[in-house]
Amino acid sequence: MTVVLEVSHETRYDYAAPVSLAHHLAHLQPLADAHQQLLAFDLDIEPAPGQSRDGIDVHGNAERYFSLAQPHHHLRVRAFSRVRLAPRFADLEPLGSPPWDRVAAGLRYVARSPFEPNVEFALPSPFVPRLAVLREYAARSFRPGRAVAAAAIELMERIHADFTYESLSTTVDTPLRKVWAEKRGVCQDFAHLMAGALRMLGLPVRYVSGYLLTHAPEGGAAMQGADASHAWVQVWCPGTPGVPADGWLDLDPTNAVVPGSGHVRVAVGRDFGDVTPLRGVIRGGGKHTLSVGVSTRVVEGSGVSGSVQHQGADSSRGGSASQQQSQSAGFDRPRNASC
Q1: Which residues pair with 233 in a beta bridge?
Q2: Tell me, what DSSP letter sits at residue 117?
Q3: What's the pLDDT at 110?
Q4: Domain boundaries 94-272, corresponding CATH code
Q5: Whether 78 contacts 8, CB under 8 Å
Q6: What is the tens place of the pLDDT at every residue in 106-133?
Q7: 53 Cβ neighbours under 8 A, 6+ residues apart
Q8: Mean pLDDT, residues 12-22
Q9: Among 276, 278, 175, 194, which residue's Cα sits nearest to residue 232?
């Protein structure tokens, strides 16, 4: 079963004083592959930028750089996407995946052995530091010789059970250690937590940003963090039956599900910092208000219909979608990590 979704993601800044110069970088265009076909994409920016350039980043994500050199009191960025989604893991056989310790051992440095690029995602990153307590937590699911996909799914389910989803309970700067201690957070935190636990075992994990329907087309169950920017992870499970040839298995610890056709992938990276939807550096602006709105609509191929929306406006937290907008001079960074 395939489903066609339309997503509208609008971000608006209103500034108390004119911004005389601004440079921005956006990761808002969904990925495209055999299971996610990008049918249409448009990025509307107001005021119109003086310069704009499309590119592909080091992780294969589409990015848009744009700059404005004329004074402006507001910035509105609206991304419209239409995608056709097919379930990626309908034939998944977790018990058929290789032992996790063999996967980890294959990434260790051996002189003159072939280099595996995915080892990058087994290393710590700015938002996902090494925490010994996460190794201990993951080890309960990763007994010696256990299939990596089966163990990762169990870990996902344990995070879902052990941690409480609480909107606006954290910011993008909340340390992972604090999330662990308080046992609460939002989708970004749970993705970072799962990535940190698996990386402590030497396993590659990618952070995924995207969108999520309120109810998954496959089962209709209500999803946490839906109708806004969402985050989950991909665990490297090479040679697992039912996983694409690249070996990446998507897992959503916020909802304890293997993503189907209700998850739209926008970008992948080491952590949130690599895939921030919109970031920038500005001169001027003073105090500002940020509002974010995301609307996701099923237009074809599912019993789920209608439009579902999430709106947010907050001058200090930066709205209620999962987003960090970095702005500088005076280098103010609205903080928000909910989804």
Answers
A1: 207, 251
A2: G
A3: 86
A4: 3.10.620.30
A5: yes
A6: 999 888 888 899 999 999 999 999 999 9
A7: 64, 65, 66
A8: 97
A9: 194
Query: In terms of Cα–Cα distance, which of 267, 260, 192, 195 is closest to 229?
Result: 267
Mean pLDDT value across the chain: 87
- Taking the domains of the chain in order of start, what are their residue ranges? 3-85+274-313, 94-272
Partners of residue 325 on adjacent β-strands: none
* Both structure tokens of 237: 């499970």
- What tokens appear for 28 in the block? 């808002």
How large a percentage of the chain has pLDDT more than 70? 84
Place of tokens 């970088």: 25
Rounded to whole angstroms, the Cα distance separating 226 from 249 reads: 20
Half-sphere exposure of 33 (CA within 13 A, CB side): 14
Q: How many whole angstroms separate alpha carbon 35 and alpha carbon 249?
A: 13
The CA distance from 52 to 209, in Å, is 23
| Global pTM value | 0.87
The CB density around residue 145, as the number of other CB atoms within 10 Å, is 10
Domain covering 3-85+274-313, topology: Immunoglobulin-like (2.60.40)
Q: What Å distances lie between residue 6 and 112, 209, 247, 303, CA to CA?
A: 48, 16, 28, 15
Amino acid sitting at position 311: Q
**Region at 237 (left for phi over 0; alpha for psi -120 to 50; beta for the rest):** beta
